[in-house]
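Workshop exercise sheet. Pairs work together: one partner reads the sequence aloud, the other fills in the structure field after running the prediction. Swap roles for the next sheet.
Pair: D.N. / O.F.
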Amino acid sequence: MKRRLFYIIAFVLIMALVSAVAVFAEREEVKDEELNVWTWGIYCPDFATESFQEKYGIKVNCTFYHGNEELWSKIQAGHEGLDIIQPSNHMIQRFANAGLLSPIDIKKIPNYAGLSEGFKKADYNTVDGKQYSVPYTYGIMGVAYRTDKIKEPPTSWGALWDPRYKGKITFSRNPVDACFGVALYLGMDIAKLDEDIDSKLVKIKEKMREQNPLLLKRLESLEEMKNLLASGEVWMTSADDGMIHKMQLDGQPVEFVVPKEGSAAWIDQFCIMSDAPHKDAAYLWIDHMLSPEIASQMIKKMGYMVVNAKAAENLPADMAQIMKYTDAETQRLSPYPTLKPETSEKMVKAYQDVRGE
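Structure field:
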């Protein structure tokens, strides 16, 4: 009897152990071991990916794009296995309305608490009462120039049409950025481009055509802009402020200008795809990138400001001076507007028409 009881107990224990091993094996099988991110080239540096893998054992695979419209096109073509994208603020509604994004659970991002308050109150990341993105970094689109080549500092977008600098000018390849810059130069309110866009694009295209003979080229990337400006092949260009800040910190003779007609300011986001296979890893990555430690390193790496309040407040003195804007300059800034998809599509078509001429 005792022996029989012993066998029964042993059998029960063995079955319990087998069950526990099976559960453990199942957990190991579904554990996220990689993360797939489509992002801008500057947002996936080695120090961030390597520290993340060391901490969590998760490999980060980054694929890069050069603009929001390019990202949209790539996703429409297919995005199997994709976890995170980083569109700018004006694209969130389009992605969310297309059913591509997963609502964000802020409780899974402890470092969200460290965001500057203004970014927590933003409405561009909310659709039908649900939050679909987390802000990350922000910058300004304006004019940059070499101080050793141009002695009279430009104050207007019109400087990029100055015949004195023919062959020494470049302009953005991003269709929406380019249209925004030209629209501002023409005195248009970029927040109202949905209104009578066809007639506005006639004027924008005409102004772009006037610029074509003056250009060395239309830029393929921010990296290309930096290299051409650093080599002296280009003296003046449309530019995001972050890359210029980085060049200044590296001792390059360049300056950034917020034109008198105004500049558009963008805020890049983190979004998790609705069909992301590695959602747990996605939340860990967002939290990792928002940490004060990584955010501080990113500012130095990119030259752009991040939304983490502590990182922004503790900038080295030289960086703080370069990244500081006057009240007059900040009053000339307009956030990238959320336009109708068909408006953006028409802007892309208009730019492509002119670029091909």
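Discussion prompt: The chain has 15 helices and 13 strands. What would you look at next?
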